[in-house]
Amino acid sequence: MDRNGVTLKTINRTATSNRLRAPSIKLLLLWLAPLAFLALFYFFPLGSILQVSFARSESGLIAPIQQALASPAFRDVLWFTFWQASLSTFLTLAIGLPGAYLFARYQFPGKSTLRAMSGIAFVLPTLVVAAAFNALLGPQGLVNASLMSVFGLEQPPIMFTHTLYAILLAHVFYNTTIVLRLVGDFWSHLDPKLGQAAQVLGANRWRTLWHVTLPLLSPAIASAAVLTFIFTFTSFGVILVLGGPQFSTLETEIYYQTVSLFNLPLAATLALIQLACTLALTIVYTRLANRLSRPLNLRPVEFTQRRLTAWRQRILAGAYILLLLMLILTPLFALAFRSVSRFERTSTTTARQGYGRPEWGGFTLDYYRELNINRRESLFYAPPTTTIAISLLYASVTVALALLLGTPAAWALARNRESILNRSLDPLLMLPLGTSAVTLGLGFIVALDRPPLDLRASPLLIPLAHTLVAFPFVIRSLTPSLHSISPRVRQAASVMGASPSKVFRHIDLPLVGRALLVAAAFAFTISMGEFGATALIARPEYPTIPIAIYRLITRPGMMNYGQALALSTILMLVTGFGMLAIERFRIADVGEF
Amino acid sequence: MNRKIILLFAMLGLLTAACTSTPGTLKIMTHDSFAISTGVKMAFETQHNITLEFIASGDTGSALNKAILSKGNPIADVFYGVDNTFLSRALDEEIFIAYDSPMLAEIPDFFKLDPQNRALPVDYGDVCLNYDKVFFERQNIAPPGNLEDLLKPEYRGLLVVENPATSSPGLAFLLATIGHFGEDGYLDYWTRLMDNDTLVVNDWETAYYTEFTRSGGTRPVVVSYASSPPFEVIYADPPLDEPPTAAITADESCFRQIEYVGILDGTKNLDLAQKWIDFMLSTTFQEDIPLQMFVFPVNQNADLDETFENYLLVPKDTAFVSPQDIAAKREEWIREWIETVLR
Amino acid sequence: MPGLSIINIHKYFAKIRALAGISFNVQTSEIVAVLGPSGCGKSTLLNIIAGLELPDQGDIEWDGKSLAGVPTHQRGFGLMFQDFALFPHKDVFENVAFGLRMTNLPLEDIRVRVKEVLELVGLPGFEARDVNTLSGGEAQRVALARSLSPHPRLLMLDEPLGSLDRSLRERLVFDLRDILNHSQQTAIYVTHDQEEAFALADRVVLMNAGHVEQIGSPQDIYHRPASVFAARFLGLNNLLAGKICNLHGEPFISTSIGEIPLTLDMIEHSALAKQDISKLDGKDIMVLLRPDAVQINQNSNCQVKGRVLETTFRGSTCQVAIQVNHVPLRFDFPSSEELPHKGEIICITFTPSRAIQLFL
User: Fold this and answer.
1) Which of A483, B257, C125, C348 could bridge to A293 as Cys pair (CB 3.0-4.6 Å)?
2) Of C52, C71, C78, Cβ closest to residue A196
3) Is residue C144 within 8 angstroms of chain A, CB to CB?
4) C104/chain A closest Cα distance in angstroms
5) Helices A461-484 and A420-429: crossing angle, nearest 10°?
6) pLDDT tens string C26-65
7) Chains that touch A (3 or more CB pairs under 8 A)
8) How far apart are CA B274 and CA B290, in angstroms?
9) Nearest by CB to A393, which of B12, B36, B216?
10) How is domain C4-230 classified at the CATH fold level?
């Protein structure tokens, strides 16, 4: 590099002018597969269901929209949807950013395990998470029970279930991993010299953070924030199960209008409003991100990470890890513990046991054993090994598809941010995430109903649906890093005779290798945990783990409940190991990065 | 890496191929609670030399929506699982073709809510209040006996119900109160029920596994099914001799959910579809229902498992609301309920 | 003691020793070059002086006061990084103004100072430029301006020309010296390039593998390298293994290219001076034959005779590689002289006290 400083500079000039003159045919080629996929499996179904829905309206196209916007109840729902999503995003960032720093800048034992565990939260079914939170913070939960016995209280001091706090806590629980991964990964490649330069110039820790580090991280922070916001904006299970009947969001309203009342015009209106909000947000985001991202000298982590040596750092890191453990791991451990515990109701009555609360009656592996027995000779029974295999199969296809489609799109985006094509396509990529699952699910039924694309009952639809959700995650994981690769490096390589594919292989891939793994991990976890779309399409003989959990937990009897928790624990383990495997995965020299 | 991906697609392709229909396939679209024993399925397949393919499509409402939206070009030949709360929607959308199955003779008339037999009853389940026997024994008070009892001060703060807007048993319980107290009286009942500190949650799972004292919650009375107590014995851990819970089955305190099956308009397998419906109504299938699906056969000749003989309480007289009324007033009732209960 | 004192600094990275007892001083207005191969601990030392790393042992003092516990941003030092570390999200003005903003100077004063420093580094009017569009030389000057603008009491430059091409580097070395001298800047200049170090520095600290090999003026270092490492690092590669013989008679050094007479001042000017002279007889030593202190003399007695392997034209000098008893040696001669051709046998003469240096 040393010798090539000047040569590179001239190359840079010519390459830039070439790029401006050349038509964006290459760009179009990159976009071809991702756009075809989106057109076929997103826009076509969405358009079809909206058309069918509004065709059912007796009062025309505009009336349902006016009707919805005029209703105060609807305005409350819209306001609450925004409010809880903003609060959730803010809290998730507040909890996640210190963690991203810790993960980015320091090496400490158990780091990759901790990171994998934070990702496990992402896949757990809401019903199971709600049960775990209740076991901890519910009126009879561990915390309240101990507080009551320590202070001799009559009533549980902490009101948690069915409060806004429950919604927020669950959203933070689910989404912290987004911040940890997206921001943490980007941060880990940020040259520490920039911060050091600020310090040498007289900036203290906070001013360095404010004036240098945060502005440089802003593309990644914006990515994480917009994903978290859209995720919580369209949150369904958390609102329903943890929030309770007092709370409703656009997504729960869409579900109610569609499934319970079959008021498709109104549901479509709500879905459109939800889409409009997502689109507006992503347009703002894309504009912002384009302004924020700068070519950076991304560094391999060996140059940016160090061990925790000073005691002050160790104590702070310890305190944060403890918080993370409490927030993310206690519910997971509570679940795992519950899945190997037998609860009995003893006959001895004490004052505190007025409810006849089930008491812990020792460890058992009954639930795990029972999972392997098809007691009723049910046709749809599937042993855990089968459900694991099915889940892993769908997840692998999702990872492959999402990366194959997402990488060219992200690459195209990073190539030329100013191109009109990119500027207009970028916001559209986020739309699948902000689309009501109920609406899109029905869209598949309406649109994909003719051979050769009669996929309505095809298991292929499952990884396709998962890919739609994973796709924006792949794009957003990759673009901050791809944007930051200085074009000079690529041009240098192509001058030395590297074909575009070789440039990608030898320049981009090693530099964004970690981001690619982050993207793969997201696609994997999304697929492993996805329930809504899978439930609409799944063949009952081939249940995924979440489907099997749902089947068990919707039935009475402690053996069913225990098995649901046992299977949830298995889901946690499989996901955790899957993510560890992805983290260890190395694409040739990508490993060093 | 590429090779792995190809391998994955190949595997998926095989899976798809395994599921793709061959000419002798009968497709049955259903909700995700549907289940059947392998033996029963095989019995039908061998008898008619065909393959059965089941397509799960989410909860009852979602599955029905899918059936409606694919009207004319149906995904399957038969749709099973529409219940009486959704029956009118299915009939109004005309997705079924009528079939006067000879097996209908073995089914009591009060199950047959569609006189044209487009939708034929298969099974039923009663949504009833359940109570935790241990709780009431410990507290030394008598458990509530009917809906009115729950308004008494001694039962203050003991009940948890599900939201009718989001939960099927929740809606059934609302219909029970409408059937029992009438359209003029149910809101008053609910007002007083809420005054007596009733807890509302969105789904059965939260009510039963989180709030119910049986599972460690604080509410000893819950809206569930009449079949829940026997299942507490069947799926107990550790094993139990008798149910820890009981259902309240006083007159007009439960709502009966009846599930129907119908042949989808547009099927190319009419003959087989009819045979399948006959089979579903026959004792072979009917006797398989309870342990697979936790609901009960409508065929009066079907025998029940011993556990049910011992522990199942079947309400003699359930609250009744017609499917037509449900279809017409569902939204209004739920809206009024929300305004009374949640605001 | 005015200026900077580096006192016995030790630093380990995970059991690997990076610095092993570094000590030297930098006086006010002095430019000290820290010279050494990459990986010798130069950058670590700068980081420790700047307070970016903590030493495991030892102390850094300024005007006799310890800086232990003083955080980086309060030390009032400047550090210019090898790849400049310009803030990519700020324009040239904001980059140069950064340190001034941290002192809460009024904006008007900041403007004046930024303009002044940009003029000093030869980039007047560059305020509004995006730093991502600067050429390598421009970026280097902006980085320098940024480091200079808050008037650091000590400026550290970490390989500031390392990433630039040769011609630019040569030009900038002189610019840099002028700028530093003009502002009477106390500076530590870290480099692996001896020419840069010699051109800029008042004194040179030669470092190797975490310790100081030699401290001295550029002339001292070049003419009297204190060790085999120093000699090799300076490009003095005619090093031969030798043995001191006949110390009490007519002493000479036996080497693979023949016997070289030994004089007392040769011992006194070398690392051997510290040894007990009586024990030197028969001792194994290293002998440096300076490439620039020999003559070709075909007519007199040959001190060294060898076959010419190749000659390389280098502008003002010419390098001649010869082979003596299978030992390759290289010598520099003024290119104005008539030089031998490849394959010729030539005769080399030298004054031992000038051309020979001895090492342990």
Assistant:
1) A483
2) C52
3) no
4) 11
5) 130
6) 999 999 999 998 888 888 999 999 998 889 999 999 998 9
7) B, C
8) 23
9) B12
10) Rossmann fold (3.40.50)
Residues 386-405 on A with a CB inside 8 Å of B are 393, 396-397, 400, 404
The number of beta carbons lying within 10 Å of the beta carbon of residue A565 is: 27
The reply to whether residue A201 touches residue C150, judged by beta carbons under 8 angstroms, is yes
Closest residue of chain B to A547, computed from CA coordinates = B32
Reported as a single tens digit per residue, the pLDDT across A262-289 is 889 989 999 999 999 999 998 888 887 7
Q: Which CATH architecture has domain A28-339+387-592?
A: Orthogonal Bundle (1.10)
Buried residues in A58-67 as b, exposed as e (16+ CB within 10 A): eeeeeebbee
User: Which DSSP string corresponds to C222-233?
Assistant: HHS--SHHHHHH
| Chains within contact range of chain C (3+ C-beta pairs < 8 Å) | A
Residue A304 has φ and ψ, to the nearest 5°, of -110, -20
Compute the distance between CA of residue A177 and CA of residue A92 in angstroms, rounded to an integer.
Answer: 9
3-state secondary structure of A228: helix
Give all strands of the β-sheet with C252-255 in edge-to-edge order. Answer: C258-261, C252-255, C239-245, C284-289, C356-359
Here the ipTM equals 0.87
pLDDT range class, residue A591, cuts 50, 70, 90: very low
Residues in chain B: 343
pLDDT in tens, B277-320: 999 999 999 999 998 888 999 999 999 888 788 888 889 999 99
Top-tier CATH class for C236-359: mainly beta
Which residue in chain C has the smallest CA separation from A217? C89
Angle at A81 between CA A141 and CA A272, to 5 degrees: 135
Kindly state whether C81 is in contact with chain A, defined as any CB-CB distance less than 8 angstroms: yes
Q: Which of A343, A397, A541 sits opposite B8 (nearest CB)?
A: A397
For range B7-27, the mean pLDDT: 58
Quick one: pLDDT band at residue A451, thresholds 50, 70, 90? Answer: confident
Q: Do B165 and A560 touch (CB under 8 A)?
A: no
The domain spans of chain A are 28-339+387-592
B287 touches chain A (CB under 8 A): no
Q: How far is A258 from chain B (nearest CA, A)?
A: 8
Domain ranges of chain C: 4-230, 236-359
- State the angle between helix axes of A437-447 and A461-484 in degrees (0 to 180), rounded to the nearest 10: 120
Considering only CB atoms, which chain C residues are within 8 Å of A198? 87, 98
Of C73, C79, C146, the CB nearest to A204: C73
Arithmetic mean of pLDDT, A243-266: 89
Q: What is the DSSP letter of C172?
A: H
Residues of B in Cβ contact (< 8 Å) with A355: 135, 138, 213, 218, 220
What tokens were used for A190? 């940020």
Identify the three-state secondary structure at position A322.
helix
Kindly list the structural domains of chain B, giving each domain's residue range(s) and its CATH number in brackets, ordered by start: 21-124+257-304 (3.40.190.10), 126-255+313-341 (3.40.190.10)
Chain A, nearest residue to B338 by Cα: A245
Calculate the CA A30 to chain-centre distance: 25
User: Of the candidates C214, C225, C210, which has an alpha carbon nearest to the alpha carbon of residue C8?
Assistant: C210
Contact A442 B132 (CB under 8 A): no
- Rg for chain A, CA atoms, rounded: 25
